[in-house]
Amino acid sequence: MAAPYGLRKIEAQLLSEGFDVSTVAPNHLKKYVGEAKVLGIHAMDPFGLGPASSTLASILKKEPFLAQYFRALLDSPEIRKAKKRGLRIIVGGPGAWQFRYRPKFVEEYGIDCIIEGEAEKVIGKTARAALNGETLPQYYEVGDKETPSLEEIPDIVGPSVNGLIEVGRGCCRGCEFCSVTLRPLRWYPYEKILREIDVNIKIGNINWSCLHAEDVMLYGSKNTLPNDEKLIKLHELVVKKCEGICWSHCSLAAIASKPKLFSKIAEIILQKQPWWGAEIGIETGSPDLVKKVMPAKAHPFKPEEWPEVVRTGMSLMQDNQLIPACTLIVGVPEETEDDLIKTIQLMDDLRDVRSLIVPLFFVPMGRLK
Ligand code: SF4
């Protein structure tokens, strides 16, 4: 069974510390939760407060499906029964921040601990404390000192959803609304990436990889300029192993800064597939707004050049068969009418580019929480 990549990391960490762990899909929980002492839940968007769910929910005026599903999971008779006999519940994952806005839910469903951030160095001690019946902190925000170094991040031991394989963590662009940028930048060595791809191929029979980083173009780089040698080698190695590749995210600025390198990478990827995809943040067409809340978004270009960076990056993608799913952020606190007009003008310029561009409402995260 493929499981979310982040959950696979937690599973690997707990196994390495000697815990007896089973990773189970929610619809199979019934078979396992009866004997479990601690239930760990990976929450992506538990209350539908993430940008995509909250935007759609406010348009459709309905509770997001993800929120309904999460509540139904905790309402299930097997979890209620297990809770009565003393099951401890620990929640983590990209949506952990949302529990701070739902304290009543946390209390009502008896969630014992919510871990926010990269949990490799804290999950063991938290699980041990839960097993020993000790009091757990209701919210645990993983601090800088507890953020794992590369050597402290274990390899996954089971297959990941969509063949997702992390190639690095962190981002150096420093956007005000983003929590990822608050953590250090680390790139995995090739060997680690290839070992994890092997897990997907051998155990999960998944022979494609979605390379994951906040900006795959910056693999191996310490700043906002792509590292040609490392990026090319990474793709040559991965293409040799896999039948297909996609990227989770990349930046327009990195693509626009090295058009020849980008074409070279496309050439490597397109040996085995006709196109590939990635998620890309355009966010705004306004240089003023970029300057205010995303000061390094355009780097190595200047914030004033942002619309041109977007046009250049998007046409390079069009020419090299990368079909992007792009986001715009609407409603940033400092956004003005003029900023919005500039975004609309930029969208007009991109009308003929093969892409999906989705406007999402602003959600306060990172330093704007
Ligand atoms: S570029 Fe993306 S990942 Fe990096 S800080 Fe900005 S929003 Fe976060």
Descriptive account of the structure:
- The chain has 369 residues and is α/β, with parallel strands linked by helices.
- The chain has two domains: 5-146, Rossmann fold, CATH 3.40.50; 159-368, Alpha-Beta Horseshoe (pyruvate-formate lyase- activating enzyme), CATH 3.80.30.
- It is built from 14 helices and twelve strands.
- The protein has helices at 5-16, 29-33, 51-60, 65-75, 77-84, 103-108, 123-131, 190-202, 228-241, 252-257, 259-269, 287-293, 306-319, 337-349, and strands at 38-42, 88-92, 113-116, 139-141, 164-166, 168-169, 186-187, 208-212, 244-247, 276-283, 322-330, 356-361.
- The chain has a four-stranded parallel sheet, covered by helices on one side.
- Bound molecules: iron/sulfur cluster (SF4).
- Iron/sulfur cluster binds next to loops.
Main beta sheet: 4 strands, parallel
Compute the number of strand runs: 12
Name the helix and strand elements from N-terminus to C-terminus, one letter apiece. HHEHHHEHEHEEEEHEHEHHEHHEHE
Helical percentage:
25-40%
Our count of domains comes out at 2
Unreliable segments of 5+ consecutive residues? none
Distance between the termini: 35 Å
* Structural class by secondary-structure content: alpha/beta
CATH class of the largest domain: Alpha Beta
* Global mean pLDDT: 95
| Cofactors, ions and other ligands in the entry | iron/sulfur cluster
Strand order of the largest sheet: 1-2-3-4
Annotated CATH architecture of the largest domain: Alpha-Beta Horseshoe
